[in-house]
Amino acid sequence: MELDGSDLRIRAMVETYERAVQAMREGRTAAAIDGFRSLVPQAKRISSLDAMCVASAALHQVSKLTDGAMKAADTAAAETMLASLAPGSEPTWMLQFALASHAAHENDPAAAIALFDQANAAKRATMHYQADTVDQFFDALIRCFDVGMIDRLSRTGDRDAKPVFIVGMPRSGTTLVEQIIASIPGVHGAGELSAVANLARDVYKHEGAWPGGAQALTPERATALSAQYMATVAKRAPDADRIADKMPMNFQNLGLIMALFPNAKILHIERDATDTCFSCYRQLFTGDVSFSYHQQELGRYHTNYVRLMQHWRMAAPGRIHDVSYRGLIENFEDEARAMVDAIEMPWSDAARAFHKTERENATASAHQMRQPLFQTGLNTAEAYKPYLAPLLDALTGSPAASPQAAYQPAA
What is the DSSP string of 95-114? Predict the structure, then answer.
């Protein structure tokens, strides 16, 4: 949102908002909620569009931190602001996401999905997303990173066993997995890093394309890239035995990861496809998750994700340890122990109390990672399936055939 920085009242509201965000990241949930809620009466007194924008963002945060269990005063304020805002504007869709989450909490799927549909459609209208181009990108990844290419580069890759890559679809449980292993002594959870994406951009810059340019990588260049990554990541926790890089979208980059780091540990989180996608659909992301705001496009993207993961398993057998989200919920001890074994670290009972591990977190799951496991994480989309036909049709279909083409990452 573009706000008037010359208005001291708005600047004060933004500062309050930022303090509340920091409290949220640090796990001080009550303080964060109080901070966000304090902005609503301020917006009412100032009575300007900028003030309502800040208050709308604050109420959206309240909805996330309370899992939709907003107070009557919260929802009344949201509805009042919504009535006065321009349809399709950013504060409008933030309030719609918030009210949709509240309707979901109140077990009103029809009301919730109506609001989710409106909010997602408004957000999607602001984005330039081409599903055909994304299909082509996945085609190119599969074509480029075959078993021969991964094997060729891995012979000279960095042999350090310190990196752990946690990957999967957004909202699949990657934050939960990181929180569990970060509870193990000697393991540092570094959060969502852009370091691997930066390597892809480096390949694009020097080899002329991504992912196709990776085929031209020499052993010397591969060594330089792996050293670049380790220099960036290792300094975060120099004494750690393992450093977890929890960027879910690195599932796209596993070919490069397996080539550059033959001893790295890879944890891939699998969650029910419908639950995963619906969780994405009801989430207003802060990063670029452009595929998430349209049911059919979301299902199509998930299908691409599934076929790419199948390719990685075939191209590098045994390199990826699959973690079942359902298994963590229903049989935590066995699933968690297998996960810790996969990163070759000794088990610690601290993993059982993972939600008590103190760490900052800036992801969409910052609140959930500090909660114990509940069965409510399973079958979350069940009541909404009558409203999810485009998503379900896309999940049961297959990506449309598309011409082979290289993809150029954003600068």
Answer: HHHHHHHHHHHTT-HHHHHH
